[in-house]
Every structure is written in C-alpha cells, then in structure tokens.
Here is the input.
Amino acid sequence: MRGMSLWRRVALTTSLGFLVIWLLAILMAAFVITREQKQFSDMRLREIAETLHPVLTRLPASAPAAGATPTRSDARSLRQPRYALFDPQGRMLLHSAGNVPDAQDLNPLQPGFQVTDSHVYYVTTPDAAGKIVAFGDSRQDRTRVLRRGFIAFALPMLALLPLVYLSAGWIARASLSPVDRLRGDLGRRNEKHLDPIDVSAQPKELRGITNAVNSLMQKLQEAVERERAFATNAAHELRTPVAIALAQAQQLQGPASDEVRPGLQRIETALQRMGKLVTRLLQLARADQTQTPRRTDVCRLIPHVLDGAVPDANLRSRIDVTLPPCPVWAFIDPDSFAILASVLIDNALRHSPDASRICIEVDAAARVIVRNECSPMTDAELASLKTRYQTSKGHRGGFGIGLHIAETIARQAGGHLTLRAPQPGRSSGFEARYDLPAGPQL
Here is the structure.
C-alpha cells in the first residue's frame, strides 16, 4: 500500500474485511443449508414413501419372479426417483417403471433411511400383510438442489463487493475531509504566514496533531523573526563604521606614498564591497517584511532607481532606457519596486562584459525588462539564481542574494519574475522580465 492515498487504504481494507466476513458467512451458510436441505429431503422422502405404501399394496405384482435378480437401470435413469414393494421375506413384488432399486445395496427388512451409491431410500415399516415399500430419490438431485441454493445465496453477496468498495471509499473520503482541510491549511503556511491553525472545528483525533504543528510554527516564527532582527540590526550597526572607514581610506590616499597607496586602494575596494553587502542585507530584511501595495506609476520611478543604483556616470552611459509615452500603473509598494529594479540593474552591470550595453525597457503591458550580454545558461542554472546565496558560474563579486531578493519581492507583490538565458530570439544574452501586478481595477 506504499504511496496509496489514505481513503483508498480505508476502502480496500474495509472491502477485504467484508470479503473475509463473506467467506465465513459462506462456510456457515453451507453448513446450515446442507443440514436443512438434508432434513427437508428426508422428511419429504418419508412422507412420499408412507403415502405410496397403501397405494402400491393394491397394485398387481409386476416384479421379477422370486429368486430372480433385478438388473440396474442405465445411467440416464440414475437421477429419477425409485420405489419398490417387497414381501415379508424381502422379495421384490413391484418396482418403478424402467428403474430398479439398488437391490444388492438395499436391505428392505430394515426400516428407516438407507444410502446407496446413487440414491437415498426410506424403507417403511411392514403393514398388516407384512409388505414393505422402499422409496428413494437421487443423490445427484439432492446435490444439484443444494448447489443451486448455495449459489443463490453466495452470488448476490459476491456482487456486493464492488458496491462495498465504492461505498467505503465515499465514506472514507467524507470522513477524511478534515485531513484534507488540514493539509490545505498547512500548504498555505510559509515563512511569511505562520499564524496558528484553528482547531475548534477539527475532530478530536486531529487536534493533537494540529496543536503540535501550531507549536512548531510558533517556534519557527520566533526563529525567523530573530534572524530578521539580527540581519537588520547587524546591517544598521555596520553601515556607519563602514562608511567612516571608507571615507578615511579615501582621505589617506592623497598624502600617502606610492608604496602605501595600492594597499589603501585595496582597502577602499574591500570597504566598498562591504558597504554593498550591508545594503543588500538591509534590502533582504526589507523584502522579508510585509509590503503595503498601492497604485504606482513605475515609469516615474525608473529615473530615481537609476540615480540610486548607478551613481557612476560612466556606468550610466552603458544603459539604454526605453519608456512608453503614457504612465504604466501597477499595484505595488514603491520602495519594494525600487529595490527589485535596482537589483536587476546591478545584476546586469555586474555580470555583463565591460563596455557592453544594458537595456531597460518598460512596456505598456506593465512589464519591466532588463537585458544584458551573457553566455547561455541551462534551466537548472537559471532556477538556482533565485536561491539565497547562490551565485552564477560567471561570478564577478556578487553575494548571491540579489536575485533572491527580487524573487521574494515579486512573489509577495503578486507579480512574476522570469529569467532567460539566452534572450528570446537570440543565441546569447540574459533577460530578466518582471510582470507587474495589476491590482484592483480603479
């Protein structure tokens, strides 16, 4: 039953249980039917023999002469009833037409039931003249009647097995519906949604499981909140010291000798990288927080995003921006969109060849598209780029959290972020396309 659904297991085990009960019922029914059928046949046989007794004594004798040995009938008459009239000495005086009783197996002088190879006989007690009647019916007939009664009892019960399986499956699905609801409630929980599940409407058997899950989710939520608080606080605490150290390193490069200046430049580069890491950690903490979406014109935000993300004029000269003439409205938090767009622009600048062009396009269909030069990538490599702390094979100083931040914001805002490499219609290039959430109609 590995991999089988719970309701199917219940239906199957219930059907198997019914089958076992059916087999036991068949055995008991066979015993009862056999006994009752024997008693009924014996009673009927006795009544017929006693009824025929006075009738046969009045008929003229037609049996073989005394001392003659009667012959058995052929096989076609084995199933027909047989009777015979005997004198006090046990000689056959009269017998049924075409059917001779099993004379050598029958003792007419012994009243009661007697069983031969083919028939069951009842021998009456002698009358006043000492005459005796033996009447027998076929054992094959008895077996056939018994078999018909047994089949008539067993087949309807056997036909109920599919109905039992379907009924048990329906009952199991209806009974297990609280489990499906619990599964749906658990499926809707994630790192942003860890509120406890209501147990008031659940059956008693599931309340213990749900309470344990609620306790676990509460612990997870506390752990996630501690992680977010730590990342946010650490980033805020590092921001000022890093900025001060960077300013000091830049100031020291002026009066420094030629031998010291390269070392100060390396320190400046390291501090700049640390400053970007602090910025990314703050963006990550911001992305993990609940957003407050509102109707926003993303075309007006793009120039401000470029000013913050690309302050270097030389880098700005590599970027081509295409905006539609009309506003493009989206239902998104402006700060979250600014973080997402700056991540996509920084990713394009960082991982494209020097002096190559970066294209930023916002179209009327509410899509933001950022394109840059890049070698082709597999689907698995593209999917891994959205994983936290996962860098591409052409890693050029990134931290592996930029696209994860963009994917988190896109998922929370309700839009969809798609990564492609190569670009559609080309053999190379990288494209990040964000389909903006439309939001409610205004």
Remarks:
- Residues 63-73 have pLDDT under 50 and may be disordered.
- The chain has ten helices and twelve strands.
